[in-house]
Structures are given as C-alpha cells and as structure tokens.
C-alpha cells in the first residue's frame, strides 16, 4: 500500500475523540495549617459540590497554562503555576 492509498482510506472519525481535563491543586498555609483551594461547581455533574478548579486541556496548550487558566476561570485568581 502506498501512502496515497493509505490516506485515501484513512477515516479519522473511525477513532474515538479524546478529551483530557486537568485539575489544579493550590496549597497555602493559613493560620499555621495547610489549606487547599476548592471551588463550588456551577455545572453538572455534581453542581453545587466542592471541587478542585479544573478545565479541559486545549490542543495547543501546555499543562502549566491549563492549570493557570483553571485557577483564573474557576476561582478568579491569577497565581504563578509550577
């Protein structure tokens, strides 16, 4: 089979779509105790429940950028991400 024959027969829809989500864990020391940032979910599933701030990873985005976007979008904070 040639590459052209392969590409003519290739059907990208035959493969499952992949979605990857990332959650950010923000830790701080408050009043001498370790604390973790949680947000209240605004959408289903688990609407109203506490959760780590998380978002879906964009195809053109690194994980540090994804984590920063999650914290900004879900908690309204602009923090350095490591």
How would you sum up this structure, described in words?
24% of the residues lie in helices and 22% in strands. It is of the alpha+beta class and 82 residues long. It has a domain at 19-75: Nucleoside Triphosphate Pyrophosphohydrolase (Alpha-Beta Complex), CATH 3.90.79. The strands form three sheets. Strands 1-6 form a two-stranded antiparallel ribbon. A hairpin with a 2-residue loop joins strand 2 and strand 3 (33-36). The N and C termini lie far apart (47 Å).
Secondary-structure map:
Layout lengths: L2 H7 L11 E3 L3 E4 L2 E4 L2 E2 L9 E2 L2 E3 L6 H13 L7
Antiparallel strand pairs: 1-6, 2-3, 4-5
| Topology, number of strands | 6
| Major sheet characteristics | 2 strands, antiparallel
- Mean residue pLDDT: 93
What is the structural class?
alpha+beta
Shape, principal axes of CA atoms: elongated
Going across the biggest sheet, name each strand in turn.
1-6
Gap between N and C termini, in Å? 47 Å
Radius of gyration: 19 Å
Q: How do the helices and strands follow one another from N- to C-terminus?
A: HEEEEEEH
Give the helix level as a range of percent.
Answer: 10-25%
- Please name the CATH topology of one domain: Nucleoside Triphosphate Pyrophosphohydrolase
CATH class of one domain: Alpha Beta
Unreliable runs: none
Identify the CATH homologous superfamily of one domain. Answer: Nucleoside Triphosphate Pyrophosphohydrolase
Our estimate of the beta-strand percent is 15-25%
Count of DSSP helices?
A: 2
At CATH level 2, the architecture of one domain is Alpha-Beta Complex
């Amino acid at each position: 089979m040639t590459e052209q024959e392969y590409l003519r027969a290739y059907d990208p829809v035959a493969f499952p779509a992949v979605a990857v989500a990332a959650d950010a864990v923000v830790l701080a020391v408050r009043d001498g105790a370790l604390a973790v940032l949680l947000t209240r979910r605004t959408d289903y599933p688990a609407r109203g429940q506490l959760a780590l701030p998380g978002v879906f990873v964009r195809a053109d985005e690194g994980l540090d950028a994804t984590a920063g976007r999650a914290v900004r979008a879900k908690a309204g904070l602009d923090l350095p991400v490591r």
